[in-house]
Amino acid sequence: MTGSSRFEGKVVLITGAASGFGRRAAERFAAEGASLVLGDIRADGLDDTVRRVEAAGGRAVSRVTDVSKAHAVDALVAAGTNTFGRLDIALNNAGVAHGTVKLQATDEALMRLMFDVNVMGVFFGMKAQIPVMERQGGGVILNTASVAGLVGAPLLAAYAAAKHAVVGLTRTAAAETARKGIRINAICPAFAETPMLTESLLSTDRSQEEMLGRLVQTMPMRRPGTADEIVQAMLWICSPENSFMTGQAIAVDGGLTAI
């Protein structure tokens, strides 16, 4: 437990909660007093996250959720509101990545997968979450985009296109809901040590160590981020103290977008 209670009494929904940023965010929000609504397509990892939260004294309801399906996202939001009666913060965090491939070699199936999960998952999430927050007089939504949604990303065309779309959805939704007490932002991490990064590195012909070395050479800090560093930023973006920020795409990238 952290000793902070800035999220005491808040209900926080997190997709992609079975690992990576989503799991760590669940642990951190719970440690600061929040009740959790957790979704992921992977039942075993989701169950493990719930056990971790409850072992630390937190409360959580979970549901296996394919965010590419509107009915599944609607059901997750309903499970949370039925259990806890409200929804204060939503992290639309579920996503998929792919290995390096030139644009002309990117097939339609890969492009559709990136958009089905990374874009439609955020779209369906906000579509279900915003009405709940409007009825209760406010709330906070944070969408996980990527530094690849802010700049060009050679050899990651499908992923970059999807993450640019997440940033566009975020800014549009923020402008539409600002007068209703809802803040909506996107976080744009660079390479961070998560299972998603490991899986994408392993999908290449080169060794994981070689690929990671190439990635960090593009970053001024010369290292990847950690899940804790990204999640710390997530908590700050969602915190009650950060009450005047909306419609922003915040890079947490070791200086990558500074060059």
User: Strand-residue fraction?
Assistant: 15-25%
The number of domains is 1
- Total helical segments: 8
Structural class: alpha/beta
Tell me the CATH superfamily.
Answer: NAD(P)-binding Rossmann-like Domain
In whole angstroms, the N-to-C terminal distance is: 38 Å
Helix content: 40-55%
How many strands appear in the DSSP assignment? Answer: 7
Assign an overall shape. globular
Q: What's the CATH topology label? A: Rossmann fold
Strands in their spatial order, largest beta sheet: 3-2-1-4-5-6-7
Order of helices and strands: EHEHEHEHEHEHHHE
Radius of gyration: 17 Å
Q: Which CATH class applies here?
A: Alpha Beta
Nearest-integer average pLDDT: 93
CATH architecture: 3-Layer(aba) Sandwich
